[in-house]
Amino acid sequence: GTLAPGARLETEAQMAARFAVNRHTVRRALEELSRNGLVRVEQGRGSFVAEDVLDYTVGPRTRFSEWIRRHNKEPSGQTLDLREMPADAIIAAGLGLRVGAKIVRLERLGLADGRPVSIGRHHFPAARFPKLLAALRTTDSISDALAQSGVADYRRQTTRVSARMPTEQEAALLQLARNRPLLVSESINVDASGRVVEFGVARYPTPRVQIVFEP
């Protein structure tokens, strides 16, 4: 309780001197703490106090703010990019559009109590929602912006999860070591009639987030 989650511990040499034991004893103690989930050891960087892991439960109506508040934390976000652009092959397939069709892309850094927990990239069909870009400039809520464009509600149709190592930029934004993997979630959201509203790609730091699927 003295050190905050994510704080770096002393080096093995420093702890060996402080507790008057050899480094092998310190190493064994850290391994035991790591097995119990109290610390994480990163090769070449040191040992750190383990951070709270947030369960991200994948359901039909997952919303970022609701997810964070369920863990008794305060949600916030930072817009990294907002623009209209042509769809590449992956985005076009996700939205059911032709390659090159205009889309609205929003990229946001999601935070829980000021700690980064996600980078979300959201894609919407621009032709269907001509007022969405302006709405997203005035509200932090995607649901509110879509409501202004006539979408009262939407739900998740599919979710695909993979893992990879972060880019330099992702590691910096998420305050994550480059040797720690990301969870990458691709999702398609549809409206009440089944039309695709959004194709999203979210990246989560594995030390802080785990994805849970429930029936």
Fold topology:
Blueprint: H1 12-19, H2 23-35, E1 39-42, E2 46-49, E3 54-58, H3 64-70, E4 75-86, H4 89-95, E5 102-112, E6 115-125, H5 132-136, H6 142-148, E7 155-164, H7 168-174, E8 182-190, E9 196-205, E10 209-213
Parallel strand pairs: 3-10
Antiparallel strand pairs: 1-2, 4-5, 5-6, 6-9, 7-8, 8-9
Helix pairs in contact: 1-2
- Roughly what fraction of the amino acids lie in strands? 35-45%
The largest beta-sheet arranges its strands as 4-5-6-9-8-7
Order of helices and strands: HHEEEHEHEEHHEHEEE
Number of helices, where a helix is a run of at least 4 consecutive DSSP H or I residues: 7
Oligomer: single chain
- Provide the helix percentage: 25-40%
Measured on Cα atoms, how large is the radius of gyration?
A: 21 Å
Global shape: elongated
Question: Any overview of this molecule?
Answer:
It is a single chain. The protein is built from 7 helices and 10 strands. 25% of the residues lie in helices and 38% in strands. The model has no long low-confidence stretch (mean pLDDT 92). With 215 residues, it is α+β, with helices and mostly antiparallel strands.
